[in-house]
Amino acid sequence: MRRFVVLAHKVPTSGEFSLNDLPGTGGRVDVLCRAVGAALFISHGMRTDTEITLLVQNAVQIRISGDRVKRLNPDERSTAAILQLALRGAGAEEVETTPGVVASQSSLSQVLDRLYQLESHPVVLHEQGVPVDEYALPADSAFILSDHEDFSNEDEASLADVPRVSLGPTALHTSQCITIAHHLLDRDERDASDDLVLCHKVWEEPKAQLIAGLLEDFGIPTNLLSHGVTSLYPGMVDGLGEVRIMVRPRDLEKARAIIGDYFGQPVDE
Ligand SMILES: C[S@@+](CC[C@H](N)C(=O)[O-])C[C@H]1O[C@@H](n2cnc3c(N)ncnc32)[C@H](O)[C@@H]1O
Fold it and tell me: In testing the pocket of ligand 1, which one of 137, 156, 177, 179 has its CB within 8 Å of the most ligand atoms?
């Protein structure tokens, strides 16, 4: 299950705002509406493997599950109406205010506790975090983001032990970060399910290892196949015979270009 948590700092916890003025009286509830859309909608459908929690002023949580939510539409106004009902209905115990939408009084530390109990992997998305290319995102990541404001000092204290990952040095909108996070996890899922494809064949093991190292330098993982036996790079490929250098489909073109440049001749297979 993918999860997103958005910390909202100005949305009124009472739910008392005008649906005609989401940025003003709503305290930028429009940012939350876009975050909900980015988390749960795909073209002509819903991400049923995703849940988003909105934590309003560290006091009220609204949790929306993609597999159960009903009557959610892509427009901000109708989403804001669903959030308004949730805020108005939130009490000490969790209550389902509309189908698939649960609300209750809560705090960031309680939200984090629940994530850990579910064995989810919280990750703070932050401009100054570790570059995402250097961080192996677990499939069941729980991404924590702020709204239009920076994380507060109180947020920072609660999140001190959570890894921070950056999507680049440019400050993006919350909903844009959610779209990118989905894209990265979608790509990882495809990589895990796609079969590797043949990139190149060589006859000497040292040459295969050299090419594998070269591709690794460009961030392209390889498998070397020899005598019909799979060996994980940089594992063993024993002895003579054909060695097949296998790569992910999305790396094939780039890998062949790199090998072609290095040896000064085009590579077909
Ligand atoms: C609009 S930004 C917050 C305000 C922003 N720090 C600013 O004033 O320019 C919303 C949130 O998206 C996330 N975010 C924005 N850009 C990011 C990036 N490049 N990498 C990771 N997360 C980012 C962070 O969680 C951030 O708090």
Answer: 177
146 lines ligand 1 (CB under 6 A): yes
pLDDT tens for 46-76 read: 999 999 999 999 999 999 999 999 999 999 9
CA of 165 to the centre of ligand 1 (A): 11
The predicted pLDDT at position 218 comes to: 92
Q: Could you tell me the distance, in angstroms and rounded to a whole number, from the CA of residue 36 to the centre of ligand 1?
A: 16
33 Cα to the center of ligand 1, angstroms: 16
Q: What residue ranges do the domains of the chain occupy? A: 2-192, 197-263
Look up the CATH number of domain 197-263: 3.30.70
Fold of 2-192: Alpha/beta knot (3.40.1280)
Task: Give the C-alpha distances (Å, rounded to integers) separating 5 from 2, 25, 57, 89, 145.
Answer: 10, 22, 13, 20, 6
Tokens 């993918």, located at residue: 2
Q: How confident is the model at residue 236 (pLDDT cuts 50, 70, 90)?
A: very low
